[in-house]
């Protein structure tokens, strides 16, 4: 004959199970399911290229798949805002480019704060800038370019990836220092800008090494300098600015990983350490370098400092240059 438990004991047992369930869930190892990595631009650009190369190696180190999801729009604002408002459990991350700092430097009204509303994971890679001209422009060095610009009766036209892009703000900084007059020709993206420089409609372009570096190799544009501390593996014959006697102008578009604010420090450490392990893989490093990227793999603290420093640096350029985006 089966003895029935007293109702009080049954109730206590049920309460114990309820208490154990959350504890078991809290102890679930991270990660235990795929991680969504939001790339806030359309497929095919520099950021997308870099993180599609990185994702498989990072997935291997994490033990779960890192799934790329493109959310373009609003100068990276749409995808960034999506992640800022996501649950801070480490399963939704952001792979932003320079707009994480530039949108603030340009005075854009944002639905998030780039410092307060995100958790830095790592500065992953940087991408050098290139200074290129149409082959018909009679210059082969930065000194010749500056002399050529000063000799023109009209401001020297130049283009970039768009108003407020890294190339735009960097050349404005250079112009101010070198005393050069110029006119920015704005395009909606780098593809039409590069096309018109190749076609001779605009003489000068400042852009990241991807995709313009491929056109330097092909001879459709002439490279004058790489804006980096050392020559690029993908363009070994192109000298740096410092090699040509110009210092204090180095700057580079940067890509990193952020999560929503309020993430568990242990989860941040797991994501950061496995990402650094993936980026230390010789095959991945070589692939990224051949594509034109410089591998950084910084700490979360270093990435947070970079974003703050870039906001401060380019806010000054925007303010002094009277640059407006709207």
Short description:
This protein has 326 residues and is α/β, with parallel strands linked by helices. It contains 11 helices and 11 strands. Helix 2 links the parallel strand 1 and strand 2.
Describe it.
The radius of gyration is 24 Å and the shape is globular. About 4% of the residues have low confidence. Helix 2 crosses helix 9, helix 2 packs antiparallel against helix 10 and helix 6 packs across helix 11. The strands form 3 sheets. A 5-stranded mixed beta sheet has the order 7-6-8-5-9, with helices on both faces. Strands 2-1-3 form a 3-stranded parallel beta sheet, with helices on both faces. Helix 2 links the parallel strand 1 and strand 2. It has 326 residues and is α/β, with parallel strands linked by helices. The termini are far apart.
Instruction: Summarize model confidence as the mean pLDDT.
Output: 89
Rg over CA atoms, rounded to whole Å, is: 24 Å
Main sheet: strands, sense, barrel: 5 strands, mixed
Q: Percent helix among the residues?
A: 40-55%
In order across it, which strands form the biggest sheet? 7-6-8-5-9
Outline the low-pLDDT stretches: 9-21
Count of discrete alpha- or pi-helical segments spanning 4 or more residues: 11
The sequence of SSEs as H and E is HEHEHEHEEHEHEHEHEEHHEH
How many strand units? 11
Fraction of residues in β-strands: 15-25%
Based on CA inertia axes, which overall geometry fits? globular
Our measurement of the CA-to-CA distance between the termini, rounded to an integer number of angstroms, reads: 83 Å
Structural class: alpha/beta
């Amino acid at each position: 004959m089966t003895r029935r438990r007293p109702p009080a004991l049954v109730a206590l047992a049920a309460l114990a199970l309820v208490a154990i369930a959350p504890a078991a869930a809290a102890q679930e190892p991270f990660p235990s399911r795929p991680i969504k990595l939001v790339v806030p631009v359309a497929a095919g650009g520099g950021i997308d290229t870099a993180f599609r190369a990185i994702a498989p190696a990072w997935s291997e180190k994490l033990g779960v798949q890192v799934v790329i999801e493109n959310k373009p729009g609003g100068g990276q604002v749409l995808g960034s805002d999506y992640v800022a408002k996501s649950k801070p459990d480490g399963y939704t991350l952001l792979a932003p480019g320079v707009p994480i700092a530039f949108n603030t430097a340009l005075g854009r009204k944002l639905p998030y704060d780039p410092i307060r509303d995100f958790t830095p994971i790592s500065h992953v890679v940087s991408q050098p800038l290139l200074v290129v001209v149409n082959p018909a422009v009679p210059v082969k060095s930065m000194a010749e370019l500056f002399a050529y610009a000063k000799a023109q009766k009209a401001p020297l036209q130049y283009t970039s990836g768009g108003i407020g892009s890294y190339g735009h703000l960097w050349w404005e900084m250079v112009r101010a220092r070198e005393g050069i007059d110029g006119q920015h020709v704005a395009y909606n993206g780098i593809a039409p800008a590069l096309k018109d420089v190749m076609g001779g409609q605009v003489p000068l372009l400042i852009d990241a090494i991807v995709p313009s570096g491929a056109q330097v190799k092909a001879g459709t544009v002439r490279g004058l300098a790489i804006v980096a501390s050392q020559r690029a593996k993908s363009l070994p014959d192109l000298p740096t600015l410092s090699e040509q006697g110009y210092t204090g102008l180095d700057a580079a578009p940067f890509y990193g990983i952020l999560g929503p604010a309020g993430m568990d420090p242990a989860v941040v450490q797991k994501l950061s350490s496995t990402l650094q392990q993936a980026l230390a893989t010789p095959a991945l490093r070589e692939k990224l370098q051949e594509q034109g990227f410089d591998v950084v793999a910084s700490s979360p603290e270093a990435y947070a400092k970079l974003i703050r420093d870039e906001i401060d640096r380019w806010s000054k350029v925007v303010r002094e240059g009277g640059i407006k985006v709207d």
